[in-house]
Amino acid sequence: MPEKILFVDDEPSVLQGFQRLLHREFVIETAVGAKGALIAFSANGPYAAVVSDMRMPEMDGVQLLAEIKLRSPDTIRIMLTGNADIQAAVGAVNEGNIFRFLTKPCGKELLAKTLNAALVQHRLVNAEKELLEQTLSGSIHVLTEVLSLVSPAAFSRAVRLRRYILHVVKRMSLGSPWKFEVAAMMSQLGCVTLDHETIDAVYAGRTLSPVEQVLFDKHPRVAHDLLINIPRMEPIAWMIAHQNQPEVVEGDITDPDRADMRLGAEILAVTVAFDDFLRQGLSRTEAAHRLVRRHKHLDKRIFEALVELEPEVDQKQTRPCSIADLAIGMILEQEVRTETGLLIVAKGQEVTPALILKLRNFYEKNVMDGVLTVSVPEGLSLAKGAS
Q1: How confident is the model at residue 312 (pLDDT cuts 50, 70, 90)?
Q2: Which residue from 88, 286, 344, 354 puts its CA 20 to 30 A from 113's CA?
Q3: Can you state the percent helix, strand and coil of the chain, rounding each to 5?
Q4: Architecture of domain 4-126 in this structure
Q5: Per-residue pLDDT tens digits for 213-228
Q6: What topology does CATH give the domain 151-313?
């Protein structure tokens, strides 16, 4: 995809001049005025860089570039200004809204050099972003699989919480739904430090001893401490740490990011309680009404989302499969337990290489059945199974 550069000015003749001057070296698009620039961003974006004049009606260059920063943080922002506007340009630089500013008149050589520098910066920003996203995605994948292997019951609850939260987030039209989804999947990670008896007791609704309860209550903070050093996971770690106390406020409560974190912790707390009620045999409506009584200031949209949440309907084609024939990507459609009742794998878990190894190890000890019920997603090649 070509790296596009948008030039913005309130004089069409000036824009035509830039187009003639630079079209052989760069992919240039133009917009008349700030309003035209914002329309262009919505219709034709993203842009690698934007070059804006300072003096324009309705919205000046500083305001426009600040707005573009909000809409497209990765776009490199450059401003053209007359000598009288230098103080305003310096302010824009100090606020972090622009990459460079150029004074008029600006020759082709300097302008081309600046645009090339902007494109290099854009590539660096995107390379770093991609690396962070890959690191984050890989870290979450590993931690999720560790949770599924070490604590299947906790993993099963995390999967249910993910389903509830995705529905709530959609109902509330919240931005960045991935943050809330990851918070759900990682919310039970701290349970890896607890013994199987405690975990099974919690998710079966049995009363814990005082000692067990103290240990279980610490699991959100354990998860926080495991996640906090992963890039971009700090807000999610905070949500998880406060899932039992979402009303706790630390720092500036007017900070939008902190408000988002508090909302995530509240949704997590509510969906955990909702899951507890469902596991006790209550209907969705009964569970939601109990939540309202417990959480006096519960957002009405969360209540409505949980009430209207459809029960899981199993329409998958299932079949028996021997452990020797398990393939990566299959879905286990049963709980897998040892002969003594120890939960090895939760229902609904995707088959991975590590899971196949775990099941084979238990099977070779003659403590579990060798035939499991699985479903095979459409398009899965069984040749991909582990050998």
Answers
A1: low
A2: 88
A3: 55, 10, 30
A4: 3-Layer(aba) Sandwich (3.40)
A5: 999 999 999 999 999 9
A6: Hypothetical protein af1432 (1.10.3210)
